[in-house]
Specification:
Layout (H helix, E strand, L loop, with lengths): L5 E4 L9 H16 L3 E4 L13 H12 L5 E2 L12 H6 L4 H9 L3 E4 L3 H13 L23 H9 L5 E4 L6 E6 L3 E6 L7 E3 L7 H11 L4 E5 L6 H10 L8 E5 L2 E2 L40 H9 L14 H7 L10 E2 L2 H14 L2 H14 L6 H11 L8 H6 L11 H7 L4 H13 L6 H15 L4 H9 L7 H8 L1 H14 L2
């Protein structure tokens, strides 16, 4: 019988949740949603020295903003496997029995080495030209541990309160084979695996032991994490094996990295070209805050859509997906093995697509406070029509001002290239006729203004439409001209034309 799908997102509260972490959470969420399973938030805070105040709250808020809230775990409700913080789980003794079992079976051992002794070992190995010094099946023979010390001495050290760690006893020169949903079968020789610390000297389990115990106790069906954990996976397979739990272990999936736009490395958290965090994050250890996607004007739906396509292939040529659509299509087998380059310009394009789908009334409401900051206020009907006109030109709500401020402010400069190319000795006379025609209109709409202009063109010959736009707005491009003139109103349009004609007398 297939296990119920239960997946977990298990970040450490060591800083803000960056976009790579959000993608891991997203893929877990989509998989759980597709299969009607559970998505759990577990906080892996075994390394208390790296704990950052506010990080846990940030993680919770980021998941909520993205719309991928877990249905169980820290900040989202208790289930039968609480608590969900590893520090709290350690206090109730969940991990100790597993560590004791590994010691009793001879698959783990006590190591009493001091920091100085470990450093001396590292220096010896470096002097011997060992490229990656590690505590392993060879080096442990020359260290101070329960494998090299007499049994009575080990007992004495333990009884005296001597500090120790518990290490995994990795076998020498043994093939370790495991299956990854994304990468297929992976085979690693144990000579490449170090004797991982399972329990630290303060009694706190490390990630290597704690996440395995938690996944078993919480009945996790699929363990999904970044590829940076792939080198540790062989040690984790051994732990499951030595605990007699290999048949109960979750299926593994190691996600590819998100690469910077140049493709030459993973994204840096201080990337200057685009945000890296979903929400703005002030790390208490740093002076400068990180600006988030939310504060940069991105919609959460757009941000999630961007992340979903970083390393995952939907199997068709479509790019815009709702969360429900993503969940219906999602399979780990469609996740690529290689890293995915992030394209910040494509990210803006995604936001633009979602912006265009928004009701004009919603855009107007979002733009209203920004317009007020500029010193202008308009009624709801005006705002809705303005946003309807300008939205095809923008990627973010805050760009409405830059792309449409001429609607509110009469120009004091006029596009020099257009004026130099198109303004001539006949222009003033022609546009005086345009002015008179507009002044004579009793009904001012986009249609009446456009028809009057077209009739005048038939009568006088060509009148350059772009030149008309520049004389009224100062800029050479924009939304449909006569719709914009209708919005601005007859009085304002006539006033601006008079001002321009005086300037270019």
């Amino acid at each position: 019988m297939e296990k119920r799908v239960r997946v977990r997102f298990a970040p450490s509260p060591t800083g803000g949740l960056h976009m790579g972490g959000v993608r891991t959470a997203l893929f877990n969420y989509l998989f759980a949603k597709k299969h009607g399973g559970d998505f759990i938030l577990r906080i892996e805070d075994t390394d208390q020295t790296r704990f950052v105040e506010g990080a846990e709250e940030y993680i919770i808020n980021a998941l909520k903003w993205c719309g991928i809230a877990p249905n169980e775990g820290v900040g989202f409700g208790d289930g039968p496997h609480k608590p969900y913080r590893q520090s709290e789980r350690k206090e109730v003794g969940i991990y100790k029995k597993y560590a004791d079992q590994l010691i009793a079976s001879g698959n783990a051992y006590y190591a009493f080495d001091t920091a100085e002794e470990l450093e001396d070992m590292r220096k010896r190995l470096e002097a011997a030209k060992v490229t990656a010094p590690q505590y392993n099946a060879v080096t442990r023979q020359n260290m101070r541990n329960s494998l090299t010390l007499p049994e009575d001495q080990v007992k004495k050290l333990l009884e005296s309160g001597e500090k120790y760690v518990i290490r995994l006893k990795v076998p020498r020169n043994e093939e370790i084979r495991f299956h990854d949903i994304i990468r297929g079968w992976v085979t690693v020789n144990s000579t490449q695996v170090d004797d991982k610390v399972l329990v630290k000297s303060d009694g706190m389990p490390t990630y290597h032991l704690a996440h395995i115990v938690d996944d078993i106790e919480m009945k996790i069906s699929h363990a999904v994490r970044g590829e940076e954990w792939l080198p540790s996976a062989p040690a984790h397979i051994l732990i499951y094996r030595y605990l007699g739990l290999e048949n109960e272990m979750p299926k593994l999936a190691h996600l590819p990295l998100i690469l910077n736009p140049d493709g030459n490395g993973k994204i840096s958290k201080r990337e200057a070209r685009f945000p890296v965090f979903p929400l703005s994050w002030q790390d208490p250890r740093e002076k400068e805050p990180y600006v988030g996607y939310k504060e940069s004007g991105y919609y959460p739906e757009a941000f999630v859509n961007i992340l979903a396509l970083l390393g995952w292939n939907p199997g068709n040529n479509e790019e815009i997906f709702s969360l429900d659509e993503l969940a219906n299509l999602f399979e780990f087998e469609r996740v690529n093995k290689s890293g995915a380059k992030f394209d910040p310009e494509k990210a803006k394009w995604f936001n633009q697509q979602y912006l265009r789908k928004k009701p004009d009334s919603e855009l107007a409401e979002a733009f209203k406070p920004l317009l007020k900051e500029k010193g202008f206020e308009r009624d709801e009907a005006f705002m809705i029509e303005f946003c309807k006109l300008v939205k095809e030109k923008v990627q973010f709500v805050h760009e409405f001002w830059d792309h449409g401020k001429y609607v509110f402010i009469a120009p004091d400069t006029y596009d020099e290239k257009v004026m130099a190319k198109k303004w001539n000795e006949n222009s003033k006379a022609l546009f005086m006729r345009v002015l008179q025609t507009f002044e004579g209109l009793n009904t001012w709409t986009s249609q009446t203004a456009h028809e009057a202009f077209e009739n005048l063109v038939k009568e006088t010959g060509k009148i350059d439409l772009q030149l008309l736009r520049v004389l009224i707005t100062g800029v050479a491009g924009g939304p449909h001209l006569f719709d914009m003139l209708a919005l601005m109103g007859k009085e304002e349009v006539v006033k601006r034309l008079k001002t321009a004609l005086q300037k270019f007398n």
